[in-house]
Amino acid sequence: MFPKLPSHLFPFLILLTLASLCFFSSFLSSSSSSSTSQSLAISNCNLFKGNWVLDPNHTPLYDETCPFHRNAWNCIRNQRQNMSFINSWKWVPRGCDLPRIDPFRFLGLMRNQNVGFVGDSLNENFLASFLCILRIADEGARRWKKKGAWRGAYFPKFNVTVGYHRAVLLSKYQWQPKQTEAGKQDGSEGVNRVDVDVPADEWAKIAGFYDVLVFNTGHWWNYDKFPKEKPLVFYKAGQPIVPPLGMLEGLKVVLGNMITYIEKEFPRKTLKFWRLQSPRHFYGGDWNQNGSCLFNKPLEENETCSILFSAPYIFKHWPKEQDTNT
Question: By C-alpha distance, which of 7, 5, 4, 9 is closest to 297?
């Protein structure tokens, strides 16, 4: 089971992902000389080495009226305690300056293109804030949804679509009831079948639509979601993998196969990001056990532990070819 951390505020993860997208917007801007110099400056900087700095002048770019937040997630409208203090934290890389994301510039650079997120609620939570930021540049933005997409928005002023496809394991999985001796199915007992070489239906056919894709998975790979009495059982080419894989072993095999699928089926021109696991952000219980986010500042380095177990595997194998015959 993944280690549980007495963890932190989700806005900090959002801010760090925004830093990556800010870097992406600079990467796109290489067509102009001024933007090129900025892009080179940022590309020589390690955005992931730095510190959270408290800046009283740092405030959200949007307010509680944004229509893309779920009501339960709208911390500003719900008057969460210490929000002004929480929103004053900003990420400052060491040795370089990271400009704040500019929604006008971002959408201008992305004109006539589409951005997609695929994964679990970490991507969905980020999406909500991202859409609210982009809406500043286009108040005519409206909700958008296509087949397979969970939610999203369309920005008509720039002809840009940003969508989210919910696929918590990335691979296709389904409940497989236990067969009784009489040949009947017992719906209360069974296993969760995971086809490691088959992407979830929600994103299997989106190749060619998005110009930028951000993938993630991680928080569902634990025994809170899939208890041992209803385990994950891994299949490949329609047959159970023998010997059976444990949960973390199965995750590595899924990642390898999904990366292979992406590289094979998606255009090479599609810019792909892989967003890694974060510390859990519940304290005093899990998400469905009265857990809450009580912290007002980021964790110190000595308060975190490495749960990015999949990171070495991902960066070793993507975009290189790999053997997925496990």
Answer: 9
